[in-house]
Amino acid sequence: MKKQKSLDYKKYFEGKKITLMGLGGFGRALEEAKFLAESGAKLLITEKREKKFLKKEIKVLSKYKNISYTFGGHKKLDFKNRDLVFFPNSLPLQNQFRDYAEKNSKVVTKTIAYVFYIVENEKKNLNIKTIGVTGTKGKSSVTAMIEKLIKDSGKNVYIGGNIRGASNLPILKKIKDGDFLLAELDSWLLQGFGYLKISPNISIFTNFFRDHLDYYKKNMEKYFKDKSFIFKYQKKEDFLIISSEAKQNISKYFKAKIESKILLANEKNLTKIWKDKKHFGEVYDKNFALAKNFGELLKISENKIKNSLKAFKAVEGRMEILKSKKGIIFINDNNSTTPDSSKISLKILKEKYPNKKIFLISGGADKEFLFKDFSKEIEKKVSYVIFFEGSGTEKIIKNFSKKNIFFEISNSMKKAFNKIVEKAKKGDIVILSPGCASFGVFKNEYDRNDQFLKEYKNLK
Length: 460
Hints:
Number of strands: 17
Number of helices: 16
Strand content: 15-25%
Radius of gyration: 23 Å
CATH superfamily of the largest domain: Mur-like, catalytic domain
Helix content: 25-40%
């Protein structure tokens, strides 16, 4: 068997003055720092936390003599005359250090965008297809479906971006000629693509609706601008796969010409055999349709696409049906972090189980959302709600039109879970679908997810 050629990636880092902002990010940044040090970079890590809070990370990195640090706050000098500056995902739009770096350093971006940039630069030597998936809802599921399709077709795929526990730069050590590079890309990660003026070879855009409006100061145009980088710099030979919702929003917010070939996915073309009772109709039909179009691009037979997607298991936290306990159906929809997303989840849940009572765990912090429609959906479809404390919860309750809505407010997952299980009976549904951000009661959305699963597993 002919040996696959590897990427010559070190030349992009060796001897270069590189700043990495932050060692946070669920352990990702630590792996990125190790990679940069091993690649011969003159690495500067700048951290707002004091050194005493980072003992574990510093110990891991102590063997590398080409790393220097700034602790207890960032300094402008850390971002001056650098060859490359990597910023964390959700840095505010107006940030003095990013603004300064853009004016005073050569390249400013995000790590996953730079991985795509290097792969694109090496296209003369290696044939590696790049794939990006974005959208307000469904991007994690579609990314997982595409990963499965590629693997089931016998090809290698490396995945990065907004994937829990995934570090991006280390992909460069593994990926080889003929492999695929796949990433789930939220709007923050796509900012990095905008800086570098690149887009994936194959882009998938699931949908677009209100989200992150605290970050974008209620400006949907700014939010869409970041999303648009998934296709803005595509070439004529590239492909953009879109849903009907994405098509409408592209027409509304993007006035320039799209160079790539556009493929419109239509879930109505899916035959009954695609309907898998493990999944939830409307939402997963749309995701299946997008993945099916991708499979057809790879010239995978319809039968193989069908078999691969029928065996697909829901991604954790995305309308994930857990095994019933005490005769109660439990659903983990933790990653519905907007009222629009949770509203859709309740709608399709009631369509699937029209005669069952729904007991909802929801609420939390606000991200400048509109909650009126979500409040109405709760009133129509939910028998009992336990909300987490937070500004989002206050808005949901304020928008209730009836006075006979049964709800309680909790400050912990344990209390909320135990109370909802007390209320629910055999044949009922318990669903975690927050419709809000996690901060306040939880460290982050992963913490909320893990606490819910812990309580579920402990239930006898």
